[in-house]
Specification:
95 residues; Histone, subunit A; 39% helix; flat
Length: 95
């Protein structure tokens, strides 16, 4: 893949970024270095290497949920700054 000005323009539009002259040159050099790294990785022989699914052999341990120390609805609403009969009132966050 060739990194040219049209690719930089397309990526900057997709990312909603703007680059000046020096930034454009730096981005182009950085992208070329990244591609060189990936090309270098392609040279490695990975025949017979199992894909890595987990970083360790240990799997997640789970436990049963236990109900402890329940609070009544009235007690939970007692110190609420704003409440309705049965619910907490919170500011609207979605327009």
């Amino acid at each position: 893949m060739k990194i040219d000005d049209s690719l930089i323009d397309k990526l900057s539009t997709l990312a909603k970024l703007q680059f000046n002259g020096k930034e454009r040159i730096q981005i182009k050099e950085d992208m070329e270095r990244m591609l060189d790294l990936f090309n270098k990785l392609e040279e490695i022989d990975t025949a017979g290497v199992e894909p890595l699914i987990h970083m360790t052999e240990e799997t997640g341990r789970t436990r049963e949920d236990e109900v402890k120390g329940m609070v009544s609805q009235a007690h939970a609403l007692k110190n609420a700054p704003s409440k309705d009969t049965y619910y907490f009132k919170v500011p609207k966050v979605i327009g």
